[in-house]
Design goal:
heterodimer, A: about 90 residues, mainly beta, Folate-binding fold, four-stranded antiparallel β-sheet, two-stranded antiparallel sheet, 6 strands, about 35% strand, globular, B: about 400 residues, alpha/beta, eight-stranded mixed β-sheet, 10 helices, about 30% helix
């Protein structure tokens, strides 16, 4: 069970959250100009790093708000969590 | 009801050595990355069917120490879509003659696989699946709750539970096999045909020159190869990044568990997508159960215990008799999941580099068929007919093979 630091509520059990996969995937700015390949990348391709990963979670049985957090996919250690539309903290060492 | 299987027979004796442990040569015709089931089967069929024996299988850990040694060994071919029916049914047909072919006991046991339906929509989707199987000439039966009870008396078919059993599909040709022995059988047969199985050999870099693969850098030095085939499951993203292209895969933990050894109470395999449980009883007597994947990306080969707890709660409702059983062990593996929950197979943007990935939570059953069709793809440098629908291009063209709905979590 992960202990996840919600930036609004503090550390809570993983079972209070829902996973949102990779963070910082924005909707294409000029969707009408995208090729099929670019659409495929936007819709289906996500990074899958072995190591630090900036990802989204939603605190769905708490404050019900989305946030971003750094997590290491090998050790499950968390780095800083941060609210949407705020500056991304640098990748933990 | 009689238990007609081989539960009580003693295991056959092993030879002292099943395969050689050579040092890597400087160069090979084909390097297969990953000595799991799919990698070993690929090497075996390259040698057996195409006479390509100058082959190395590189394994960073030990042979079959990844998902091949961690799965719940369920074998079936009753998938919804034609593309899936094609490759999984080919695989099941190969299973049916595999022990004789490789000359090694694998405890392949066609005890049947039952998939339960628990709600009206679940029932309709299972019936759709059942009719799709009939159209594809794949053996399938529809069972009423009473027929479920007849085949598996320990299932609770009371209507007064949260997820009552409303019916089930049943594939009598489905079943289980002993996963380690399957890997060892393929390894022995491949080694006997001249394939080098090299353990403790980690690929650090896939070398590409002018868009063509030329070999791999490993912790045992550079090894050149005309062709390189990736069969690395959860680590496929890491390898493809080394080769300079992306794949639409996410790596997640998938957990499984066994109980202590018990009297034989379950003579078939029972799956339920709706309540996230799949269970069979191993020949020795352990109940083998699988859970759903953990929610997050991971390379850690472990997951949260709450996933196991949730899984056991579901199992207990279906099988009240399990309440007395003790949990013996849980473990996790890392599965690579594509957006449509179907594998990604075939050629890659790099010439002479091939991909066999995305089997997600259900790769074990496909081991023979995947190896057979992948070897053909590598030998001819073009996708085999069964492999064609599984190309990377499908994510651009939109020809997805959406087995999510058909398979539920218990893939």
């Amino acid at each position: 069970m992960l202990l996840i630091n919600c930036p609004w509520c503090g550390p809570r059990d993983e079972t209070e959250f829902h996973y949102g996969s990779e963070a910082h995937i924005g909707y294409p700015e000029k969707p009408e100009e995208l090729t099929d390949k670019q659409w495929a990348e936007y819709i289906f391709y996500r990074n899958n790093p072995k190591g630090w990963f900036a990802e989204r979670w939603v605190h769905n049985v708490g404050c019900r708000r989305w946030f971003n957090i750094w997590r290491n996919t090998v050790t499950h250690q968390f780095g800083p969590s941060y609210k949407p539309f705020t500056k991304q903290p640098s990748r933990p060492k | 009801m009689t238990i007609k299987r081989r539960h009580t027979e003693e295991l056959p004796e092993h030879p002292d050595f099943l395969w050689k442990n050579p040092s890597p040569k400087k160069s090979y015709d084909v390097i297969v990355i990953g000595a799991g089931g799919h990698g070993l089967a690929t090497a075996y069929y390259l040698a057996k069917n195409f006479g390509i024996t100058n082959v190395a299988v590189l394994e960073k850990g030990y042979l079959a120490g990844g998902n091949m040694g961690r799965n719940t060994t369920i074998i079936r071919s009753n998938y919804l879509w034609d593309e899936s029916a094609g490759i999984y049914e080919k695989s099941l047909q190969l299973w049916e003659g595999l022990e004789e072919e490789v000359g090694y006991e694998m405890f392949f046991d066609q005890r049947g696989v039952m998939t339960l339906a628990h709600s009206v929509s679940d029932l309709r989707s299972k019936q759709r699946n059942f009719y799709a199987n009939a159209v594809n000439d794949i053996d399938s039966q529809w069972l009423t709750p009473e027929e479920v009870k007849k085949i598996a008396p320990i299932v609770n078919i009371s209507p007064d539970v949260r997820y009552p059993v409303l019916g089930a599909t049943y594939q009598a040709r489905g079943g289980i096999a002993k996963h380690d022995w399957v890997a060892w059988g393929y390894a022995k047969a491949a080694s006997d045909l001249g394939v080098d199985l090299i353990q403790g050999c980690e690929v650090k870099k896939v070398k590409v020159e002018n868009g063509k693969v030329v070999g791999v850098d490993t912790n045992q030095g550079f090894i050149s190869a005309n062709k390189v085939a990736m069969a690395a499951a959860g680590h496929t993203s890491v390898l493809s990044e080394m080769a300079g292209f992306r794949v639409p895969l996410q790596s997640r933990p998938l957990q499984a568990l066994v109980s202590e050894l018990l009297e034989h109470v379950l003579d078939t395999v029972i799956m339920s997508g709706a309540v996230h449980v799949y269970v069979s009883q191993a020949h020795k007597g352990e109940l083998v159960m699988g859970a759903g994947t953990d929610a997050y990306n991971s390379y850690a080969q472990r997951g949260g215990f709450h996933v196991i707890e949730h899984q056991l709660a579901s199992a207990l409702e279906l099988f009240p008799i399990f309440s007395r059983a003790h949990l013996l062990r849980t473990w996790g593996g890392i599965v690579d999941i594509a957006p449509d929950a179907s594998p990604i197979l075939g050629l890659t943007p790099v010439e002479n580099l091939y991909i066999n990935s995305g089997w997600g939570t259900g790769g074990f059953k496909a081991t023979p068929g995947s190896g057979w069709a992948f070897a053909d793809t590598i030998a001819h440098n073009r996708a085999h007919e069964l492999v064609k629908p599984y190309s990377l291009d499908r994510f651009v063209s939109g020809h997805l093979i959406d087995e999510h709905g058909a398979a539920g979590v218990a893939h």
